[in-house]
DNA sequence: CATTGTTTTAAGGTTACTTTAAGTATTCCC
DNA sequence: GGGAATACTTAAAGTAACCTTAAAACAATG
């Protein structure tokens, strides 16, 4: 995990750098809010350790800006200030955790490991093929970054096709996954949905295989 | 957000239940580790508040088992024990946060909000979309800088929607986050709340996706 | 215990999705 | 090229999902 350490006390920074890299973390160190922000913008780290007492900028301000720019970049705040009010302000502004100085190194490591574990398991069910992006968990489809609204059946159908991109889905397979047991469809509903889908997707995104079924290519 | 409160001190539990639901959390309460585990297995909550001092099971054990079963279910640990060693043990076993008793309620709320933010989209306690501003911590909503009064359920509903702005919330998801176990709703209460909310919000702020659910857009 | 505000239930009206069905366009094969 | 099979499009009919309203049940407050 790549860390950005924002700390103006050079002695403390040096100690932290040493200890963190001994624990296997990769750490970049900056000592001003300005540098911190540009590093955050460059998406150059997986998490931030932020000391609130900075010379050029209020730490909570920096936190706020970081939060606006990189929504869920984890930030662990270090502070000398005590008192519950300050802590709540920090947490509500988007800090993921909080450590009051002086703190024990092992506790810092433990908290970083929590963040690490969390980053590893950020699951999004997103399929992207060509210009088409389908988010199964959010029920959302984008074509060239433009949200497209699909009806329920259209969404189901597209999902089936995109989940087995590169392979052919037979008409029977598609009908089976769109319709539950009792409600087989007597007519050409499937073709109608395909037709309506195509109007909303790039040209030739869904290919027909005469006598067999449909497919979308991974290309 | 649905919480599971694991606490054997009934007085404390009662107080927490009251305070948390006033803050708009949906809370289920159990007092033994056994019940806690079965609820966790059933995936019936988004986060756990766990008191380490349980009668039937060591709290850290429960934490470990929960972690094995539900990898990233957030757990906030309450404890009377002090000393850094214990805290590190808790964090490394998978607790996401730690509060030593006695603690101040607002700090608990703040830490829950951190967890909440992490689970959903990275919204801070103040979410502003279009003309609508929602302050999670103050329970306040403004439309075009004009304060608007919402009932508890209306607020919860709007919060859920705004926290996942840009994504679609299914009916099931919304109902699950509005109602705790015993109080499932048999009828169209959700639709009624949506309808009442819309009267108080800008036109088309809440969009319907037939057969799927509802959403508000970030734009 | 009465008043007030909130939440749920229930019913009818409305909208938009889905299917049907009929006509048009393709592809394939002789 | 002509005929048959298959696929595509369109528009209208059917249907399921949703919206609104009003009233009943419930909870909080003085």
From TrEMBL, chains A, B:
BP term (GO), one: regulation of DNA-templated transcription
Boundaries of every Response regulatory domain copy: 2-116
Chain residues forming the annotated DNA-binding region: 124-218
Origin superkingdom: Bacteria
Main location: cytoplasm
Domain OmpR/PhoB-type stretches: 124-218
InterPro entries the record matches: CheY-like_superfamily, OmpR/PhoB-type_DNA-bd, Sig_transdc_resp-reg_C-effctor, Sig_transdc_resp-reg_receiver, WalR-like, WH-like_DNA-bd_sf
Keyword vocabulary terms for this entry: Cytoplasm, DNA-binding, Phosphoprotein, Transcription, Transcription regulation, Two-component regulatory system
Residue numbers of 4-aspartylphosphate PTMs: 51
Localization, UniProt: Cytoplasm
Pfam families, alphabetized: Response_reg (PF00072), Trans_reg_C (PF00486)
Cellular component aspect of the GO annotation: cytosol; protein-DNA complex
GO molecular function, one term: phosphorelay response regulator activity
Protein name from the UniProt record: Two-component system, OmpR family, response regulator
């Amino acid at each position: 995990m790549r860390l950005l350490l924002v700390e103006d006390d050079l002695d403390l920074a040096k100690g932290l750098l040493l200890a963190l890299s001994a624990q296997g973390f990769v750490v970049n160190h900056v000592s001003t809010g300005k540098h911190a922000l540009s590093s955050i913008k460059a998406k150059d780290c997986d998490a931030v350790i932020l000391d609130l007492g900075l010379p050029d900028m209020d730490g909570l301000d920096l936190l706020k800006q970081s939060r606006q720019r990189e929504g869920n970049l984890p930030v662990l705040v270090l502070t000398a200030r005590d008192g519950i009010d300050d802590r709540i302000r920090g947490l509500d502004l988007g800090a993921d955790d909080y450590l009051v100085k002086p703190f024990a190194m092992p506790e810092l490591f433990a908290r970083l490991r929590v963040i690490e574990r969390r980053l590893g398991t950020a699951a999004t069910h997103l399929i992207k093929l060509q210009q088409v992006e389908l988010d199964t968990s959010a029920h959302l489809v984008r074509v060239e970054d433009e949200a497209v609204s699909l009806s329920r059946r259209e969404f189901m159908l597209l999902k089936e096709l995109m989940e087995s991109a590169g392979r052919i889905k037979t008409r029977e397979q598609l009908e089976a996954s769109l319709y539950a047991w009792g409600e087989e469809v007597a007519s050409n509903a499937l073709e109608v949905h395909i037709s309506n889908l195509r109007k909303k997707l790039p040209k030739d995104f869904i290919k027909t295989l005469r006598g067999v079924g449909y497919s979308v290519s991974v290309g």
